[in-house]
Structure prediction request, 484 residues.
Amino acid sequence: MIKKRPFTLTRVHHGETSSWYVLFRDPQTGKRMNKKSIEVLRKEMGDQTVEPLLRKEDAEALCARYLERSLHTAPTQRTVASYMMEFYDWDTSPYIARRRTLDPESISRDYMATRKNLLLNHAIPLFPPTLTLDHLTVGVLEDLQYHLVASGKLAKNTVNMIMQAVLFALREAQRRGEIPQQVLLSIQPLKAKERIRGVMTETETHAYLQAAKNMQNKRIWLSATVSLLTGMRSGELRALTARQIGDGFITIDRAYADLQGEKRPKGKKTRIVPCPQFLCDQLRDFAHTNPYRFKETLVFWSAKGGSYVSSHYFCEIFHRALREAHILTKEEISQRNITFHSFRHMANTLLRGSVDEYVLRMTIGHSSEQLSDLYTHLSQKALENVALAQKNNILLLVETSDAETPSQATIESSPMCSSTSKQESTFALGQKFFKSWAMFPPWVPSWVQNGMMVFPAQENVSRNVAIGGAKVPYQLGVPMNSVS
Prediction:
């Protein structure tokens, strides 16, 4: 009888590169187990070599050493290191598979990939190679935290992030019975000082926007201006299409991430943000200059093929423009922690105090409320106040001269700046927002489409609703257009 080899090697090609994978045989059944990357195997054995193994002979020798050192254990006695790598692997993790099946929007591929890389580079090499889940102790976790700090390579916030990722995975193993319940899976987090994200002064912002407007790359001025006015995140700008831009508003219903692709915005909700008509026109015009017409008409299309720009694109062009305009040096940018996301913080700062706090949260996207609440609680008047606050507090930073600044009539002709009464129904708001579409999009609630603005009926319950910055009491179960 021919004796089966304890493992099989296979080469997997990734574009122009390739890497070795091994399939071990289960020592009890003799069946091949899931393939494992040779590079991951090296990490589990404590090998910190950066250069990948290219020769088959070297990969075979590594697998033989792995078996000789009894690192390969039965599935019921998995090592902590191998469990960690599988837990955060998007393609092979049973935990991720369950989450994706039961609640697809509850887990992000980019988030899991970030945690996997942190563990692979910093935590996995520090675990004892033969340590199995059933022999894990709190002392091992304390040692891990200590060595991460003692290395002097990582900030305390990063160490906390690594420990959170480790504990999260181990608690799932304990819940499923692979770690004894008496093991305390808890570590005191390090006291870390949160680095505050900086913002530019109004003078610096004005100077930057004027310099950016004269630069050849139109994306520099457009991205900064729309983020400053609306508070849009970079992922939302990456996914922005001409179809989302209306007359005086932008519908933010998607974002883009490197691994996951298009997804719902952060907070899993759609929001509608006022945007000056002149800027809406310029965004649409720039979108239609895309010669590639990738999928939908992306506004911020990449010059390399017309697809999505990279995740660091907006921050890179922002920093480069700051230096070229001699507004801030590289050292000042780093010291003050100025990033593209600073525009979102500045939008929140400049609008706060001019509009109701609830309206601000719904506009900027800091609320976890459902989409229906946007239509129920934000009247046309409230959104007009946001547009007015933009004009009074932010557009002054965008303006250059009378010849280049949109006229008062242009700004006030926006649907967001028209005068309406507090009695105007939210259904009319929906009609204005979606008048350019042949039908309502599927995510608009049926009670908006049918014009029925009746709140959930509950006896003897009332609350305040934000209308134009004022708190107006109403009785639940009463149509919105009857509120005075």
Observations:
- Residues 22 and 139 are 32 Å apart (CA to CA).
- The longest strand covers residues 7-14.
